[in-house]
């Protein structure tokens, strides 16, 4: 198994800096994460497909719905109540698309899992009595009932609730300061939890779908998705790309560094990158089981 540390070590060795522990090592770590993000997002890789099928329920008068925070790209979205596939409509085709509850846009990600149920104050609380420092203040930006922008910084008081002065109709951002000991919970004025952040989390991003027409009822919508790449941080972290093809990150990162440093791009690096990419595509874009349908199609007209 190839770890984050093993990838770092091989890159530093090939860069003739095997003993590096300073700023260049930080550059290498950042480049590895950039390489993984680029590679994981370039195709609909089977290893990035979220295993579970998730659902949400529509409600009359509500057009916008938040998805799982790890959604990077939708695989499918289906109305199980009506047994109809939902169709994504790009903004440029809005006026030419069918306007019904089976058509949707992908819109701005939300910082909370759900917007306040009604206009009212927001509150924060920690699961740990240790979270009381001013440096841990949570900055909330939101629109009030008159669509005026409000910004409030709330200093946590441990397990006691702290509440905003102004009322919020829509939350725009939540920024957690300092290093927390406990879990941050943000609630609306109806006591609904709209965001929960673990001690090491600084924020979340919830992709949203917006239906083109009021659903006028409770339909169950199920969806699957390709997840966002993970950020490698601990030396023992395992890349998202399965071994042995995860070695492509070595060559991807070396070529990124060469571009950054304006250094020559050795043909050997490019050749090894091409070999790993071919193996990755053959295994994780084509079906692996007997009778599987191939998803890579060559244009036979050329």
What does this entry show, briefly?
The chain has 4 helices and 15 strands.
Give structural notes:
With 302 residues, the chain is an alpha+beta fold. It has three domains: 4-45 and 241-281, no CATH class; 48-110 and 207-227, no CATH class; 123-201, no CATH class. Helix content is 21%, strand content 25%. It is built from four helices and 15 strands. It has a four-stranded antiparallel beta sheet, with no helix packed on it. The longest helix is centred in the N-terminal third of the chain and has 19 residues, at 23-41. The model has no long low-confidence stretch (mean pLDDT 92).
Task: Record the SSE blueprint.
Layout: H1 4-14, H2 23-41, E1 54-57, E2 64-66, E3 71-79, E4 84-85, E5 87-88, E6 103-110, E7 123-126, E8 138-143, E9 149-154, E10 162-163, E11 170-176, E12 184-187, E13 193-197, E14 206-211, E15 220-227, H3 248-261, H4 267-284
Parallel strand pairs: 5-6
Antiparallel strand pairs: 1-15, 2-14, 3-4, 3-15, 6-14, 7-10, 7-12, 8-9, 8-11, 12-13
């Amino acid at each position: 198994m190839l770890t984050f540390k093993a990838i770092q070590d091989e890159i530093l060795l090939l860069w003739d800096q095997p003993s590096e522990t300073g700023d260049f090592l930080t550059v290498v770590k950042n480049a590895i994460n950039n390489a993984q993000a680029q590679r994981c997002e370039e195709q609909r890789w089977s290893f990035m497909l979220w295993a579970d099928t998730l659902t949400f329920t529509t409600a009359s008068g509500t057009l916008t719905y938040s998805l799982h925070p790890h959604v990077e790209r939708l695989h499918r979205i289906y109305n199980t109540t009506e047994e109809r596939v939902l169709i994504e409509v790009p903004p440029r085709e809005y006026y030419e698309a069918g306007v019904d509850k089976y058509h949707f846009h992908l819109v701005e990600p939300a910082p909370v899992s759900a917007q306040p149920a009604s206009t009212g104050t927001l509150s924060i609380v920690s699961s740990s009595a240790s979270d009381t420092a001013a440096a841990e203040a949570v900055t909330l930006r939101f629109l009030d009932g008159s669509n005026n922008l409000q910004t409030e910084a709330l200093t946590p008081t441990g397990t006691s609730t702290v509440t905003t002065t102004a009322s919020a109709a829509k939350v725009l951002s939540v920024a957690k300061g300092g290093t927390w000991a406990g879990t941050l919970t943000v609630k609306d004025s109806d006591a609904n939890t709209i965001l929960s952040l673990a001690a090491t989390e600084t924020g979340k991003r919830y992709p949203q779908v917006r239906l083109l027409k009021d659903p006028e009822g409770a339909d169950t919508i199920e969806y699957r998705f390709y997840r966002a790449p993970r950020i490698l941080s601990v030396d023992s972290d395992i890349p998202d790309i399965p071994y042995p093809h995860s070695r492509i990150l070595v060559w991807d990162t070396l070529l990124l560094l060469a571009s950054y440093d304006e250094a020559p791009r050795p043909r050997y690096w490019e050749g090894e990158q091409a070999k790993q990419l071919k193996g990755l595509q053959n295994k994780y874009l084509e079906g692996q089981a007997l009778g599987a349908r191939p998803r890579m199609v060559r244009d036979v007209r050329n």
